[in-house]
Amino acid sequence: MFKKLSLKFSVTAIAALFIIELLTVVLINGLNLYFTTAQVDETIELIIENNGSLPEKRICRTMDSMRTVKSLEL
To answer: What pLDDT shows up at residue 61?
Structure first.
């Protein structure tokens, strides 16, 4: 009886930990996808606004702060 109960507890605990880890990975990847997409969209808008090139200086509109960032020269 104790062996059966111990096995049942172990399986339940392992399943719960797996679900928690899976949800954590999905949440982190989802947030990463969201912020990366926002940055790419902003960069594409800047390229369109400047007729195909990045400006010398640009203002980042993502995240909470507005800051001036030097763009990379390609």
So the answer is: 58
